[in-house]
Amino acid sequence: xxxxxxxxxxxxxxxxxxxxxxxxxxxxxxxxFRASVGHGLRLAQANWTVSRRGTLRGVHFADVPPGxxxxxxxxxxxxxxxxxxxxxxxxxxxxxxxxRLDDANRRSLYLAEGLGHGFMALTDDATVMYLCSQPYxxxxxxxxxxxxxxxxxxxxxxxxxxxxxxxxxxxSLAEAERLGVLPSYEACLAHYAAxxxxxxx
Length: 201
Description:
Layout: E1 2-3, E2 9-12, E3 17-19, E4 22-24, H1 30-37, E5 45-51, E6 56-62, E7 70-76, E8 78-85, E9 96-102, E10 108-111, E11 115-121, E12 126-132, E13 141-143, H2 165-168, H3 173-179, H4 185-200
Antiparallel strand pairs: 1-2, 2-10, 3-4, 5-12, 6-11, 6-13, 7-10, 7-12, 8-9, 8-11
């Protein structure tokens, strides 16, 4: 598990064992995960999406608490996966980092509660699996304009983006901040600490 520049985000870069039969890799290891994050992966829901090339899903986040942590892997094709720090008061607030997830490098990405998440499909039939710490709760879910110039996410310029009506109408970061829907860094830190404490109990 390698930490990204945004606190609360890690990428798992597994060793892929391949031979004439195919391949095997460990996409999740409890011991390594706990050593990095401080607690285990709580699984409440597993999601599977299949996307056409250019499909852009996000940027999504949820109220904290309880938030929704995600462990994401692209099992077929390739996506550009983006983590956005939407936690007001965070030292990396407004910053983002992108990681290519595909069926060759087999990377997985973990995002703690309170972080924004989005991805663009780089291939047809890009298939992404999410393991989520909380079930989907529409009343607690929010989105941001993925093309907000204040965020300045560098999406691939050679691919025409395909968005849902909901994502296309999502507010800017500044609008979301004015509406008071962004999670606070303080609340997220308290939530992370409570999870680590619970893991030690």
